[in-house]
Write a structure and sequence with these properties.
about 375 residues, alpha/beta, Quinone Oxidoreductase, Chain A, domain 1, Rossmann fold, 2 domains, seven-stranded mixed β-sheet, six-stranded parallel β-sheet, about 25% helix
Length: about 375
């Protein structure tokens, strides 16, 4: 990344309109809503598939774009201002943003599962604005200091890495286990990387795009498989053969939400195994309940991340147990945000990063 230009007090924002067009707007600089909040100047934001889905379809499940909204939630930046009760952060600190604000009082928050809070204000989930802007305000304890050697780009990818950390922890994955991951997008390959860091010996990643599988093989997978939507149960047997497994995978993680992938995963799952659903697809699908029940398997769904996940994600990057640099294949200036969305929609590369307003970017990085 290049230099950061002089401050601008306007909150330049990249906004998705209700008609699904984009516009740049000079909005007012956020006012801290509470003395324990901080204002962050956003430096780098990774683009997520959910951002593109809101653009293309105007909704994800029950969350619908009914008013103009700022997208983006995978971000890192610099503390610009601190509320009067902030104690752990100071202006100038480099931080990764955990982009949520739970109520802290419901039974889920008090029980340590704030990711399930029904009152969660999550960035870029309607009606709440996201981080593709100059300034973003959030609670002090949802900002995590970045180690000196960790870049802002890597800091932005702490968010998707935390999704993977949460999924792998929820599965209960242990050293020596076998894991089958469906989907070689960012979440899928990060799940593979975390599983490897946790000591897993066999990791097979499947996808419909060969170039993504090539990356997965070089990044964290021990095996890969090019699959299709045809005969998912048969392919569930074939992936076992590829991984030299005769009695199924101990763990299956579906990072797609696609029915054929889920059916393939259930077919490949060992008796007594654990299936973790991370990807969100259609609301209603045909699910092979009979096969699943006969295996006495465990089904778990994973949603975002929870207590300790961000800290562990940063620790994995800090210690080199997981590297996220390789995922970043495309870099965009703020004024080229729409082009970034088009690129992700067309499946260019693995992960795209958009820099904040007025951030000078090395021209050698631009693609």
């Amino acid at each position: 990344m290049g230099s950061i230009q002089a401050k601008d007090t306007s909150n330049n924002s990249f906004v998705l309109q209700v008609d699904r067009s984009f516009a740049f707007e000079a909005r007012e600089r956020p006012v801290l809503p509470s003395p324990n909040y901080v204002l962050v100047r956003v430096i780098a934001t990774g683009l997520c598939g959910s951002d593109v889905h809101y653009w293309k379809h105007g909704a994800i499940g029950e969350f619908k774009v009914e008013n103009p909204i700022i997208l983006g939630h995978e971000s890192a930046g610099i503390i610009e201002e601190c509320g009067s009760e902030v104690r752990s952060l100071s202006p100038g600190d480099r931080v990764a943003l955990e982009p949520g604000d739970p109520c802290r009082t419901c039974k889920f928050c008090r029980g340590g599962k704030y990711n399930l809070c029904p009152f969660m204000k999550f960035a870029a989930t309607p009606p709440y604005n996201g981080t593709l802007c100059r300034y973003y305000a959030l609670p002090e304890d949802f900002c995590f200091k970045l180690p000196e050697h960790v870049s802002f780009e890597e800091g932005a990818l702490v968010e998707p890495l935390s999704v993977a950390v949460h999924s792998v922890k929820l599965a209960g994955i242990c050293p020596g286990a076998s894991v089958f991951i469906l989907g070689a997008g960012p979440i899928g390959v990060l799940c593979a990387a975390v599983a490897r860091a946790f000591g897993v010996s066999t990791i097979l990643v499947a996808d419909i795009v060969q170039s993504r599988l090539d990356f997965a093989q070089s990044y964290a997978a021990t095996h890969t498989s090019l699959i299709s939507a045809d005969s998912p149960e048969l392919q569930g047997l074939e992936v076992q053969t590829k991984a030299d497994i005769s009695d199924g995978f101990d763990f299956v993680i579906d990072a797609t939400g696609v029915e054929s992938c889920i059916r393939c995963g259930v077919a490949a799952l060992a008796r007594g195994g654990t299936f973790v659903q991370v990807g969100m697809g259609k609301s209603d699908i045909s699910y092979p309940v009979g096969i699943f029940a006969s295996k006495e398997a465990t089904y778990k769904s994973s949603f975002r991340y929870g207590a300790g996940d961000y800290g562990l994600a940063i620790e994995l990057i800090k210690t080199g147990k997981v590297s996220v640099k390789e995922l970043i294949t495309h870099h965009y200036r703020f004024e080229d945000s729409e082009r970034a969305f088009e690129g992700v929609s067309n499946r260019l590369g693995i992960k795209s990063v958009i820099y904040g307003p007025d951030i000078e970017v090395d021209s050698n990085k631009m693609r």
